[in-house]
Amino acid sequence: MIVFEKPKSLTDAELHYCPGCTHGIIHRLVAEAIDTLGIEGRTIGIAPVGCAVMAYNYFACDMVEAAHGRAPAVATGIKRSLPENIVFTYQGDGDLASIGMAETVHAATRNENITVIFVNNAIYGMTGGQMAPTSLPGQITQTSPYGRDVKTAGYPVKVAELLSALDGPEFIARVAVNNVKNVKNAKKIIQKAFENQIEGKGFSLVEVISACPTNWGMTPQNALKWIDEKMIPYYPLGIFKDKSEGKEAGER
Amino acid sequence: MAKVTFDTDRCKGCGLCVSACPKGILELAKDVINKKGHNPARMTDQEKCIACAFCATMCPDCVITVER
């Protein structure tokens, strides 16, 4: 009996991500959700710009590459013209929380019936480790060598809290993938985000706290510990909004 | 009996499976270099494996298949 194998919704292509990068885990969780729900034949993914720019090589469903930050706008167009299909976007923090913030907020407030997977690793990975809108106060990056100074660079954007304050979106949650327990929970939440779309409930966003060992300058093991010690205290995990369960902003 | 197989050439030697294993029976093979140029993970004592699949759950590259 097979206990665990590669999901069918991932292709055989080898991932280009750095050793220990948790993008691979998140790709797998999305693919497992697609497999479990049996929607492989009618799913369309939108790839971002960032480390996950080549996600279209890895998901075994139809994929579209969007201009930087515009994935929710592209997803809106596809979902409205092909309402029977399941549309998801897979975006990093540079894509979703920086250049694509307008598209994100407006897709959420319109309650577009799409699923958004938001990977937050508190740094710009692909371009070489610059400060992101989600970098923590005091975090050392290529463009903040003395640590992020909140006086000049401002405070990190808490996307889940920000969007859950809107009346529009159906489901907003934050999960992490730094240990087995959190990965199993993330799997459930990501699956729920897809189920919401199948049931026509509306905009579902899952923020996934992810590791970037290369640009954080840590071993993969220490990067997972850093998530526990630094990131989760700043970005608390949980379901921030679940309209059909009667859970509104401010409750957790 | 539990059986864990590694698609060795996909492995990037990050070691996340090694630290996730509750039985401590995985290691990075320092005497082996795979196609990618990494020291891949391997099983040291198949008899002790309980097929919990924690290793495969934490593997970012879908290297590991677990059977029971």
In short:
The complex is a heterodimer of chains A (252) and B (68). By secondary structure, chain A is α/β, with parallel strands linked by helices.
Describe it for me?
The complex is a heterodimer of chains A (252) and B (68). Helix content of chain A is 36%, strand content 17%. With 252 residues, chain A is an alpha/beta fold. A seven-stranded mixed beta sheet of chain A has the order 3-2-4-5-7-6-8, sandwiched between helices. In chain A, α7 links the parallel β6 (171-176) and β7. The model of chain A has no long low-confidence stretch (mean pLDDT 95). Chain B is of the alpha+beta class. Chain B has one domain: Alpha-Beta Plaits (2-Layer Sandwich), CATH 3.30.70. Chain B contains two helices and four strands, in the order βαββαβ. The mean pLDDT of chain B is 95. The interface between A and B is medium-sized, with 29 and 25 residues. β1 (2-4) of chain A pairs antiparallel with β4 (64-67) of chain B.
Note the main attributes of this structure.
heterodimer; A: alpha/beta; Rossmann fold; 9 helices; globular; B: 68 residues; Alpha-Beta Plaits; two-stranded antiparallel sheet; 2 helices; 15% helix
Radius of gyration of chain B: 11 Å
Q: Largest beta sheet of chain A: what is the strand line-up?
A: 3-2-4-5-7-6-8
Number of helices of chain A: 9
Shape of chain B: globular
> Class of chain A in CATH?
Alpha Beta
Average pLDDT score of chain B = 95
Question: What CATH architecture of chain B would you give?
Answer: 2-Layer Sandwich
Structural class of chain B: alpha+beta
List SSEs of chain B in N-to-C order: EHEEHE
Largest sheet of chain A: 7 strands, mixed
pLDDT < 50 runs, ≥5 residues of chain A: none
Name the largest protein-protein interface in this structure: A-B, 29 and 25 residues
- The proportion of residues in beta strands of chain B is 15-25%
At the fourth level of CATH, the homologous superfamily of chain A is Thiamin diphosphate (ThDP)-binding fold, Pyr/PP domains
Q: What can be said about the biggest beta sheet of chain B? A: 2 strands, antiparallel
Helical residues, percent of chain A: 25-40%
Overall radius of gyration of chain A? 17 Å
Oligomer status: heterodimer
Major sheet: arrangement of strands of chain B = 1-4
Task: State the low-pLDDT regions of chain B, or none.
Answer: none
